[in-house]
Amino acid sequence: MVRGKPNILITGTPGTGKTTFSSALAEATQLRHVNIGELVKEKNLHDGWDEEFDCHIINEDLVCDELENMMEAGGIIVDYHGCDFFPERWFDRVVVLQTDNCILYDRLSKRGYSGSKLSNNIECEIFQMLLEEAKESYQEDIVVAMKSDSIDDINKNVSDLTDWVASWCNNSAQSDNMRD
């Protein structure tokens, strides 16, 4: 089965603007935005609470089971800070948002991050761990790093990906016509 609309994974260190960007992209493209953090809370797809990092311990198998049918249908924007547990077949584009460390530090501090949670996330960004994870988990030609320091960056990224979605849908429609 060929999807009529692409699936996009938006990933990056916490504080890089994944949810803001995903919401704006969903509005611009009419794709459905799924925030994995919210889904985990809403559907209880976790194995408890991590006191050190002050977050749920997600159950990756339950998350994938929950998403399977909608991902097969297509037209989904998945927003999450990790990416290596999602099946490769689900995504047509993987976007890794990246933010300058000084800006990221300020954003995370304003969220109340401190101690090891703050330093681990800053180190993750410095060493581009999520970009490496994405490149190891998916075909490199579908992985794109995008700067996410400002509203202007978000607007440019939304515009660029909206164009990509339109092109993908157009190419998909042409492929369908060639098969008919």
From TrEMBL:
Keywords noted in UniProt: ATP-binding, Cytoplasm, Kinase, Nucleotide-binding, Nucleus, Ribosome biogenesis, rRNA processing, Transferase
Region annotation NMPbind: where it falls in the sequence: 35-58
GO terms assigned for molecular function: AMP kinase activity; ATP binding; ATP hydrolysis activity
Reactions it catalyzes: ATP + H2O = ADP + phosphate + H(+); AMP + ATP = 2 ADP
Record-annotated membrane-spanning stretches: none
Matches recorded under InterPro entries: Adenyl_kinase_AK6, P-loop_NTPase
EC number: 2.7.4.3
Cellular compartment(s): Cytoplasm; Nucleus
Gene Ontology cellular-component annotations: cytoplasm; nucleus
The protein's enzyme class: transferase
GO biological process entries: ribosomal small subunit biogenesis; rRNA processing
Main location: cytoplasm
Pfam families: AAA_18 (PF13238)
Annotated Gene3D superfamilies: P-loop containing nucleotide triphosphate hydrolases
Residue ranges of the region described as LID: 110-120
Binding site for ATP: 15, 17-20, 111
Role, per record: Broad-specificity nucleoside monophosphate (NMP) kinase that catalyzes the reversible transfer of the terminal phosphate group between nucleoside triphosphates and monophosphates. Has also ATPase activity. Involved in the late cytoplasmic maturation steps of the 40S ribosomal particles, specifically 18S rRNA maturation. While NMP activity is not required for ribosome maturation, ATPase activity is. Associates transiently with small ribosomal subunit protein uS11. ATP hydrolysis breaks the interaction with uS11.
Family membership noted in the UniProt record: Belongs to the adenylate kinase family. AK6 subfamily.
Known partners and oligomeric status: Interacts with small ribosomal subunit protein uS11. Not a structural component of 43S pre-ribosomes, but transiently interacts with them by binding to uS11.
Protein name: Adenylate kinase isoenzyme 6 homolog
